[in-house]
């Protein structure tokens, strides 16, 4: 180890006036590069630093944590666990939130390897103490504990068992004890378990056996509206994998959600939990298809359009996103068009928002319009049935749809500008879209003009449009062979090509 740093850290062992020494160590660490001290600093050297945390002096704690945060990442995590396990455990119970954060951060680094997670599973007391931090008064510490335990539990089924099995050595009883402290803390535990179950059927089975998942499902019927809001949102997130959806259907959650949606007009506070219900059905549409949802609840689309036209912004946003999820596949497009005038009114309103709504709503509207017009997930056998539908929706954008879309591509706001290019890229993938783009004056010049975009994201987004056009077998026929060669050269040069003054002068000559 470098002598000056070694001497300073050694002095921490014997010198009672530690803060001045720590400040010198900090200065040394700030000045040195990590490569200069890598493979030199060992876990045993850090023991003296951890001892400096046994104080009530806030400045000394913060300086020590700064040094440890700088040095720990260059030490082998297994070495840290083997030699500093007690120091880490002491950090989890420290009175300072800064130290508790440090300990959780280091545990998170340890489990980035399978070996580290496996070794940590041999320290059940450390895990139990981490579980207790779910109830920490400092919300950021509690959130860090939730994130760590989620990542730890997702490592493998064997690791998950150390948390959720009924074995005396597991942390299940500690989890249940923490759950009993308050509603908010109980939902933090639910979050950990929901994150773990998403990994696989085996993980889900472990979570079911623990009894915690069934506890969450029961809360869907709770009379406390605020609890129901949180429960709906969590179950919607849980319904993001097929094995989870299968369980939720068997547990009666799907039928309960249908009932809640049907009776939403009778509940005075339904606006609070409807977004979670809609998100749940959006996930169900993604994994099981929108037709299954419509079969279970024939009035689903009617309810969805009614919620979209409500005055509640959060409900409106989720309704927009749910309709987009439905409309991205051919089955969904056919279901939506069967709604007749309600669907037409929806598309018209989306187009209005797309052109003149608030920025966040405009982004959602442009994205949903892209999903409605998208043909990438359309079954080839149904293309002929879907093309007239998407063309009719395109014509609803405005009296001059292509002009409206290009105006989005020229917006000063980067997110809207890129979403405009993504919508244009979607249209470039349609047979009628290529013709619409070819018929628009100056379209060729605009797409080939590299000077219109100055940022990386926009250059890439425009490049994708040109690339999609070149890949179309109909492009040369529609745009002409000369333009095809120009577009192909554009693609060959890449998104960030800059013309030299010489080549420009030659072209102009």
TrEMBL record:
InterPro entries attached to this UniProt entry: ARM-like, ARM-type_fold, PSMD5
The source's domain of life comes to: Eukaryota
Q: Name one Pfam family in it.
A: Proteasom_PSMB
Q: Could you tell me which SUPFAM superfamilies the record lists for this protein?
A: ARM repeat (SSF48371)
Q: Which family does it belong to?
A: Belongs to the proteasome subunit S5B/HSM3 family.
Name of the featured protein: 26S proteasome non-ATPase regulatory subunit 5
